[in-house]
Amino acid sequence: MSQHPNQHPNQHPNEPGDGPASHPLRFGYGTNGLTDLRLDDALALLADLGYDGVGLTLDHMHLDPLADDLAARTRRVARRLDALGLGVTVETGARYVLDPRRKHGPSLLDPDPADRARRADLLVRAVDVAADLGAHAVHCFSGITPAGTDEDTAWKRLAESLAPALDAAATAGVPLAVEPEPGHLLATLADFHTLRRTLGDPDALGLTLDIGHCQCLEPLPPADCVRAAGPWLRHVQIEDMRRGVHEHLPFGDGEIDFPPVLEALAATGYQGLTVVELPRHSHAGPHFAAHSLPFLRRAAPAPPPRTNRSGSPSATH
Q1: Residue 231 CA to chain centroid, in angstroms?
Q2: Which pLDDT tens digit goes with each residue over 39-61?
Q3: pTM score, whole prediction
Q4: Which of 248, 300, 308, 313 makes a 20 to 30 Å CA pair with 33?
Q5: Cis status of the peptide bond prior to 113, with omega within 30 of 0
Q6: Which phi and psi angles does 108 have, rounded to 5°?
């Protein structure tokens, strides 16, 4: 697997390493909020704005996971990311990438085994892409429980369907980070732990934590969710949101108090990307990308002062 210069070799992004004091939070922006831009233009925009990386959704308009020349396209994207100095996570939440008539379909829970296998194959492809890009995680989700499917059957299907991707992730050294999604079988942090225990707590399985989803439906405040999730964090998405309403909002349009959330995140030692997730705002994507990063930097904990070799604060900083 190629290693991006911003990623620590052989270290998951939530492992302590040198500690949070040495590693300020790293912010990215999701390409699912920049779907009206060519991928090269979107990456250049984010680099120019000062982002540390990108949440790259595999989709037909940017990097099509079903393209015959996927390997060659991935190599080109890898070179572009390296040239721009951008880190990357790979996301798999494209709406119609597998079926032009079913949003997010088929899922890992579909009654038809062949349909479940199509989603599982997409995740394996995503792991391969992530390895070639030097990504620090692959994001995925369970899907909505189909009508007429009981909960026990749905959990069994999920565990079985994830097996090929988890095997690929273990081989590639890229964690598969499952996202609790409102309305899905796996909707909460408690559900993530159900899956983790069912699978025997494999090293390749991690968590994608969406800060807005914590505000939407978790029993704990978002900052407490971050602290509770710390040991399993492999990817973080962030946006504003209101309690009980699953709508991704620009910062300031919801109810979240972000400084405590980002302070808690820094305290976990998480070193992966924290990616802005505004998938319904592509119509003004460059505007929201430009305004989101300054907001996050203001809300994030200040980095510690640099010190000289004697341990005294540096006067040259």
Answers
A1: 16
A2: 999 999 999 999 999 999 999 99
A3: 0.90
A4: 300
A5: no
A6: -70, -5
